Amino acid sequence: MPDRDLPRYVPRATPPLYASPSIRAVRLDWVECAAHLSGKCLHVAMALWWIASVHRKASVRLMAGTLRRFNVTEDTHREALGRMERAGLIRADDGSDARPRVTLPDVLGRSLRFQRD
C-alpha cells in the first residue's frame, strides 16, 4: 500500500487531564487476550485502560469523547464490551445508565488499584 493511502497522525490539543502520553501499568496478558477477540475489542481495551489510568480508578465509564479518540462507535463499543465480559476481561454493570460502568479485574479476581505517584 503506498504511503499516501495511509492515515496520517495529526497531533491535536487535549485538555490537561488527558495530556498523559502513556498508559500506566498495562498488563500484557490482558491486552493479548483482548487482541485475540474479534471486532474492535483491542481498541476498547486500550480506551478502558487509558481512562482508568488517567482517573486512577479500576471502575470507569467510556464516554463519547473517549470512544471517538480511540475510533470506536457506540454499537461497536457495546459489542466489544459484551465479548470482553464473556472472556472474563472486564465486569460491566449495565444498570439503568446509558453508559455501563466497567471494572477492570486483576488476575487474582480483585479490582485493580492505581497508586498515586
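^ that was protein a. below is b, sequence first then the C-alpha cells
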Amino acid sequence: MTPYNVAYLVTVLWREIGADRRITPHSLRHSAITVALDAGIGLRDVQDFARHEDPKTTRRYDRARNPLNRHATSRDRPVPRRRQLTPLVARAAG
C-alpha cells in the first residue's frame, strides 16, 4: 500500500464519519504517539515506534499532551453523534 492509498482511505473514512476537523495520516500518527505516551510507554520505546532519530522530537509530543488532554475533556463542546460506517469494500465495488 502506498502513502497515496493510505491518504485516500483516511480521506474516505473522514468524509463518512462527518468529523468536524480534517483527519490525515499525520494526525493519526500524532494521536498514536500521544496515546502511547499517555499509556505510560517509555519515551525511548515511543521514539523507536515513531522512528524519530532524535529523542527531542518525541519529547515535543510529551510536552504537548497536557493542552491536548484539557481540550479532549472539555465539557463545552457537544459530543458528535456517530454515524454507521459502510464497509470500504462495498464502497469500492459500487
